[in-house]
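Input record (Table S2, row 324):
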Amino acid sequence: MRYKRLPFDWMPATLDWIPDDLPHPPLCAAANRKLDGLTPRVVPAVYFPNDGLIRNESTTIAYLLDERHADRLAVPRDPAVAFCSHLLEDMADEWLVKIAFLYRWGHEEDAAFKSRIVTGEFLGGYYSRAVLDKAAKHFASRQQSRMRLVGATAENAAMIMMSFDRLLKAMDRLSDNATFIFGASPTLADFGFYGQLQSLAADPTPWASMRGAAPGVFPYLQLLEDSSGIETQELSLLDIGAATADLLRIVVDIYLPYLRANERALAGNEPSFAFEVDGLRYVQEPFKYHAKCYRVLREKFSALNPGARSQVEAVLGSTEFLLS
Ligand SMILES: N[C@@H](CCC(=O)N[C@@H](CS)C(=O)NCC(=O)O)C(=O)O
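Output record (glutathione complex):
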């Protein structure tokens, strides 16, 4: 929203995260009324006051904002860049959340630290320390009970951490060639990474790893926090550097195999699925929404014109997982 120079109000929403016996502040109650009837019950959600439309799913919101406010596009005009930007944003939204979950809810120190911040925002001030402690504990254990659903388990930790290491190495080198992933102005991919990396950079354990392994990520996040002063540039896949190519290789090596294994398990009505990368194994219950993500990616790939498609093929190396 800041990049697009759109004014907005930020309203914390509780959904069902605060138990009934704790106070629900008026600000959250107002936001919750607007969220009434919204499916799936997930945030962020954007309410458009002019026509009362409400939408969630960050990817859908980004496309909708570009449709309604077309002067500073998050989805680049160049179709090859737009496709790769979508691919990276999808991985950021759907795979990087596993890294964030594993750290935040898998380490007691992180869980205690962050649950107070998150619930403090929901409670909206004027709460006693006892109320905050109770709400924070409730929220942390609720999130911990969902770790398996997300795949953030001890069994999957080695693969998740390997993907984080690769991601940090690539992100740390981004400024060798460009300011943002595809060049001098940010795209949907940057906003997707920003969401996850900013949260990792504010949790004690991943913050320490990031500081050691990828100090270059911090100025990148700082720039993205408010990119309203950055001019939008035309971007081309022909100009990307090694760091961006490495990020795209993570999609090819880990995220697309994950999406395909998930889709096959859903189609076969399997109770769980597994896949391996570099001898590391990952197991999870199938997740319906990720089958939709995979379908959208393949549709977008097949809709590319021949020129854009060959540029995408050249950077991805293998497009086997994108063919229907
Ligand atoms: N793919 C969605 C994911 C949204 C999502 O999972 N949001 C979480 C909070 S970060 C949520 O609302 N979870 C609902 C719950 O835990 O009940 C997006 O990118 O917007």
